[in-house]
Specification:
This protein is mainly α and 285 residues long. The chain has twelve helices and no strands.
């Protein structure tokens, strides 16, 4: 069940990133983040109210609050790094986020078997290669590397924190709601600061109402992914859950291949294959 929920996480995150990437081609990325997360927050608020989720309020919500702070900061750093480029270097470096929850799991005494260790190594290598690492071409700015490493640390902290934010389903919905409220507050502040600096919040054509269903999907898929990851981390070893959940770049690349007819590089195809092999080793180890 750990593998099932963790793979669901990678599927949801991968599709959310694909949808968000499409939206960001026409609408400022910060606006995409804030609007999609606001929609998800509204839906979660209704669910929490219907379930009486506030009865689960307690100290663990600080983990959700911290995850809500780390997520937007990581995303903003990652977008800035992608803008500085080259993306072929930035994207694979971002997958180093998996090191945080894996390290936490090992520190807490988890002991994966030999086959699972092999699966972790193969899967992480596959994810990095699936990002299409660029080894030639444009030089990499030091700022891009620093921003990417900060983003990876932030994403990894979200992995680790959200796994500790609840102990049951009702508490999980409340934790996700608190995380999203924090996301919107931080992202909204960043968007406001961006507009004050003269950057547009919307495209020249105005608010993209036709994109509202896609914005809703991106926000809700991201929330669902956090939920399935929290369940996966509760059911089994965090080391296994984190690695399997980190396969989302493979999903994004395959979605681009299927929906946009983007051709995978040979290294990306090899990475997808290795990720699959690593998944099988982890699931059966």
């Amino acid at each position: 069940m750990t593998a099932l929920f963790a793979l669901a996480t990678s599927l949801l995150w991968g599709l959310a990133d694909f949808g968000g990437g499409l939206l960001a081609r026409r609408t400022p990325a910060l606006t995409v983040v804030v609007v999609s997360q606001a929609i998800a927050t509204a839906v979660l608020g209704v669910i929490v109210a219907a379930m009486g989720g506030w009865s689960e309020a307690g100290p663990r919500l600080w983990f959700a609050f911290a995850a809500g702070l780390a997520g937007p900061v990581a995303m903003i750093c990652f977008y800035k790094a992608l803008a500085l480029g080259p993306m072929g270097v930035v994207s694979p470096l971002g997958t180093l986020s998996v090191a945080v929850p894996v390290g936490v799991g090992l520190a807490l005494g988890e002991h994966p078997g030999p086959m699972q260790f092999a699966g972790i190594a193969v899967a992480v290598l596959g994810v990095v290669l699936a990002g299409g690492p660029q080894v030639k071409g444009a030089p990499v700015q030091r700022e891009a590397i620093v921003l990417t490493l900060i983003a990876a640390l932030g994403f990894g902290m979200v992995f680790a924190l959200i796994a500790e934010a609840s102990t049951n389903v009702t508490g999980l919905f409340l934790a996700l709601f608190v995380q999203r409220v924090t996301n919107v507050a931080v992202g909204g502040a960043a968007l406001y600061a961006s507009v004050r600096r003269g950057n547009p919040a919307l495209p020249a054509t105005g608010f993209p109402w036709s994109s509202l269903p896609t914005l809703a999907f991106v926000g809700l898929a991201d929330v669902a992914a956090n939920g399935t990851y929290a369940v996966a981390a509760r059911l089994g070893p965090v080391t296994v859950a984190a690695v399997l959940a980190s396969l989302y770049p493979v999903v994004t690349a395959l979605a681009a291949r299927g929906f946009l007819s983007e051709r995978l590089k040979a290294v990306q195809a090899a990475g997808a294959g290795l990720a699959l092999v690593g998944t099988l080793l982890l699931a059966t180890g």
